[in-house]
């Protein structure tokens, strides 16, 4: 319990030195990872059911060779592909936004530094320190967020592509 | 010849006669006599003058002697006074020494008193408590100056005054006091108001923070007040009677609140961005408007397409229905012709679904670029300021720097939501297009199989 409390204190101190933009980045990374976890869950669990359903419906058909059958097969593959690729583009946008938000934090932090300079002159480095930490911490957090997301994103994209190809193979066509 | 002599003589005698005697000279003898008489007269006159001059000379000599005597007397007096002065100097030195000896530790006391009075004067002149008790710094200043001159001694009353003033400053800094004072409002009017003083930290009137202008010793309403939640405490402390009140305190005694006036608010920040900043905001606004229109459009089309997916009758009000209608319109067409007709119908629908999306994408890319443009123009301004004024004063460069930074911020503020909006819209329109491109034929096939 004490260890948890200490951790909470450390996180709170970090968030306070990072400023408001860091809170935004934290929210963004939180949403990003919720979407990533949901996608991973779907890839390992939900999609299996969908695939089984599609394959069994296809196997139940007598007709596997007519024009209609081909179109129906293509439609099923497309539906599965849409399901697999759902939220992936959104995830890509979130990953791309992380460094942008970090940059926003940098610039707002610099504005604070220059505000301090305009009021108290360039003499006191200590009064500028708060602005400097607000400028640097969000950049770092944005980078960390983007890096953490990009691995998951790449895996999800490759997995979706592979699953679609596998599905196409499972839906056999007889001539 | 003789005639001419006689003539001139006559003229001369006539002159002489006219000057001295009225008697007319009738002959040369007479003339001679007259001349003699005149000469005698003249010498008499000269003698008289001589005597007069002599008398005057004696007079001058006497005066000179008198002046010399006077001078000698004065020299004697001065010598006497000088010796007396020297004697007196010795005496005063002795007396001073005696005074110093007798004052002893008292002299140190007066030195301390002077120092304390000077310090207290500086403290009182900036203290908020002076708003309630005016004129304390003047009294302290007078006392310090008086102590500086050794000719005057402080009376016990004056010494006690310092003690009392310091004690009062200490006591009052621990009190929340209410008093009436004239306050200069933001409009410039001077109004008598009930002012609450919180220790030596803050002054509040009518729920607003006041500043104490030390130069004039007047109270003025701060032209920019802190945010609403702090003002509530300021209002409560005035109306509250005795109970505990939450109050936002400025521990620096007003200097943080004073800096608050200098810190720009959101509107001023945006204004610092200049023309480039406004252009970025305008572009962002256009992007948002287009995104809103596309959101509504895609939501309507998507809802209609999904209801079309559930129904068997092809409707004319949505892209999928229109594509499916191709089959109904050409019941006799063979597979190849039908496929061509379908793809033609789909091609007609796709641009309507992805309309304006590229524009939003362009805005999301252009906004940070425009921010960069603003950054560079701001830096140009900064360097111009440096060439004109040098790097000595950072305040002169602040305008250009804040323009540079604010435009970057505005560019990012526009770009970040635009990127998100574009992705969401693009995913939606792409899903609809997938349904048209890859599934329309399948949907038609499923429908015909079901019907068969």
UniProtKB/TrEMBL annotation, chain A:
Identify the Pfam families for this entry: MotA_ExbB
GO biological process: any one?
A: protein import
Would the keyword Cell membrane turn up in this protein's UniProt record? Answer: yes
- The record lists the membrane-crossing segments as 20-42, 88-111, 135-156
Question: Where is it predominantly found?
Answer: membrane
Cellular-component GO terms for this entry: plasma membrane
Q: Which family does it belong to?
A: Belongs to the exbB/tolQ family.
Q: What is this protein called?
A: Biopolymer transporter ExbB
Organism listed in the record = Saccharobesus litoralis
Automatic annotation (TrEMBL), chain B:
For whether the record's keyword set contains Chloroplast, the answer is no
Residues spanning the signal sequence: 1-23
Coiled coil segments of this chain: 50-84
How does the record say this protein sits in the membrane? Multi-pass membrane protein
Assign the protein's first listed, main location to one coarse class.
membrane
Q: Does the keyword Cell membrane apply?
A: yes
What's any GO biological process attached to this entry? protein import
Q: Which Pfam families match?
A: MotA_ExbB (PF01618)
UniProt keywords (A-Z) are: Cell membrane, Coiled coil, Membrane, Protein transport, Signal, Transmembrane, Transmembrane helix, Transport
Protein family (similarity comment): Belongs to the exbB/tolQ family.
Which protein, by its recorded name, is this?
Energy transducer TonB
């Amino acid at each position: 319990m004490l260890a948890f409390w200490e951790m909470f204190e450390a996180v709170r101190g970090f968030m306070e030195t990072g400023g408001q933009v860091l809170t935004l980045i934290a929210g963004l990374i939180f949403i990003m990872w919720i979407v990533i976890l949901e996608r991973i869950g779907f890839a390992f669990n939900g999609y299996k059911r969908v695939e089984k359903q599609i394959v069994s419906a296809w196997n139940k058909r007598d007709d596997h060779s007519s024009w209609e059958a081909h179109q129906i097969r293509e439609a099923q593959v497309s539906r599965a592909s849409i399901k697999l690729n759902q939220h992936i583009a959104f995830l890509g946008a979130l990953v791309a936004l992380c460094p942008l938000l970090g940059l926003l934090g940098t610039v707002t932090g610099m504005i604070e530094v220059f505000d301090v300079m305009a009021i108290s002159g360039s003499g006191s480095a200590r009064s500028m320190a708060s602005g400097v930490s607000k400028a640097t911490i969000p950049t770092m957090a944005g980078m960390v967020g983007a890096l953490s997301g990009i691995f998951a994103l790449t895996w999800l994209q490759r997995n979706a592509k592979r699953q679609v190809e596998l599905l196409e193979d499972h839906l056999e066509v007889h001539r | 010849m003789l005639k001419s002599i006689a003539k001139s003589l006559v003229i001369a005698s006539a002159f002489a006669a006219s000057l001295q005697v009225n008697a007319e000279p009738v002959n040369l003898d007479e003339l001679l006599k007259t001349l003699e008489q005149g000469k005698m007269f003249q010498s008499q006159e000269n003698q008289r003058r001589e005597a007069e001059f002599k008398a005057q000379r004696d007079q001058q000599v006497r005066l000179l002697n008198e002046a010399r005597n006077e001078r000698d007397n004065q020299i004697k007096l001065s010598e006497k006074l000088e010796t007396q002065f020297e004697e007196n100097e010795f005496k005063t030195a002795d007396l001073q020494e005696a005074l110093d000896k007798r004052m002893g530790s008292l002299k140190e006391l007066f030195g301390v008193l002077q120092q304390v009075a000077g310090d207290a004067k500086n403290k009182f002149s900036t203290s908020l408590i002076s708003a309630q008790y005016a004129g304390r710094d003047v009294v302290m200043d007078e006392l310090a100056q008086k102590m500086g001159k050794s000719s005057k001694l402080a009376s016990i009353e004056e010494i006690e005054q310092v003690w009392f003033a310091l004690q009062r400053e200490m006591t009052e800094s621990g009190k929340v006091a209410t008093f009436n004072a004239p306050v200069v409002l933001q409009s410039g009017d001077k109004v008598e108001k009930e002012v609450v003083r919180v220790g030596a930290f803050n002054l509040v009137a009518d729920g607003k923070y006041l500043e104490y202008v030390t130069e004039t010793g007047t109270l003025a309403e701060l032209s920019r007040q802190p945010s609403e939640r702090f003002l509530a405490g300021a209002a409560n402390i005035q109306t509250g009677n005795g109970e505990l009140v939450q109050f936002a305190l400025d521990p620096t005694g007003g200097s943080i609140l004073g800096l608050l006036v200098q810190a720009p608010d959101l509107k001023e920040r945006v204004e610092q961005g200049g023309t480039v900043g406004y252009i970025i905001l305008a572009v962002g606004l256009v992007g948002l408007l287009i995104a809103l229109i596309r959101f509504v459009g895609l939501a309507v089309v998507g809802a209609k397409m999904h209801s079309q997916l559930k129904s068997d009758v092809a409707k004319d009000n949505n892209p999928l229905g229109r594509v499916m209608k191709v089959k109904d319109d050409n019941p006799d067409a063979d597979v190849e012709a039908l496929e061509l007709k379908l793809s033609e119908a789909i091609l007609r629908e796709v641009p309507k679904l992805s309309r304006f999306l590229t524009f939003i994408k362009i805005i999301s890319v252009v906004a940070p670029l425009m921010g960069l443009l603003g950054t560079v123009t701001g830096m140009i301004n900064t360097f111009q300021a440096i060439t004109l004024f040098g790097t000595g004063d950072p305040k002169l460069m602040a305008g250009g720097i804040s323009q540079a930074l604010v435009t970057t911020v505005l560019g990012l503020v526009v770009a970040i939501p635009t990127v998100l909006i574009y992705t969401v819209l693009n995913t939606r329109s792409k899903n609809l297009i997938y349904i048209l491109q890859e599934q329309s034929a399948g949907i038609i096939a499923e429908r015909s199989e079901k019907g068969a």
